[in-house]
Structure formats: C-alpha cells, structure tokens
Amino acid sequence: MRSLRAAEQLGRFAVVGVANTLVSLAIFSGLTAGGAPAALAAAAAFAVGAVNGYVLNARWTFSCRGSKLRYLAVQLGGLAATTALAGLAGAAGYLAALPAVTLATFAANRRWTFRAGT
Question: In this predicted structure, what is the pLDDT of residue 106?
Fold first, then answer.
C-alpha cells in the first residue's frame, strides 16, 4: 500500500511540476513582454512557480502543511543541480537533469518537507 501511495504522490508531483512550468512561463513571458530584463523575469517566474508548487503540493500531493523553509531549500537544491548539469553538458545535461532532479526533489519533499503526508 505504501508504494501505491508513493506512486500516486509522484504522479501528482509531476502534474504540479507541469502546472509550475506553465505558470512560470506565463510570468516570464508577461514580464519580458512588458520590458523587464530576462534575468529579473526569470527570478520572478521561479519565485511564483515555487509558491504555486508549495501550495499545490501541500494541499493535493502530500495533503499536509510542510516546512516552507525546507521546501525552499529543496527547490534551490534542484535549481542548483539543474544549472550545474546544464553548465557542464549543455542541452544534454539539462535534459538529463530533468528526470533526475524531479525524482530527487520528490524524494526530498516526501521524506523531509512534507513528512507527515507520507
């Protein structure tokens, strides 16, 4: 039963990730279309996506309130890993980072950030 619960949570986590991507893209596009520098738009888009992800994961994926500070740490760790892999290996590194970072951040959030919902 525990593995079924984990698989269901992973599926929900992936849906939240897609939603975050769409929200972030909309924010980035809107800000850059309005004349904001790309770096500022990217930072704002990441922040809005992270807040959206916390809310959706707390309510739907894990069904419990997690630590916002831990969630932020996991998000920043995922960002750092993705950035490092892309920096080392370009597009191939970025593509390789996506599934690896997704699984790592899911595990960290499940076992550390939202521990009560497992």
Answer: 97
Give the integer Cα–Cα distance in Å for 25 and 5.
30
CA dist 94 and 57 (Å) reads: 24
pLDDT along the chain (118 residues), means of 10: 84 96 95 95 93 96 95 95 91 91 96 82
Inter-CA distances, 68 with 21, 55, 62, 95, Å: 20, 10, 14, 28
For residue 12, which of 48, 60, 55 has the smallest C-alpha distance? Answer: 60
How many separate domains does the chain show?
1
Identify the domain containing residue 18 by its residue range: 2-117
Report pTM: 0.88
State the Rg of the chain over Cα: 15
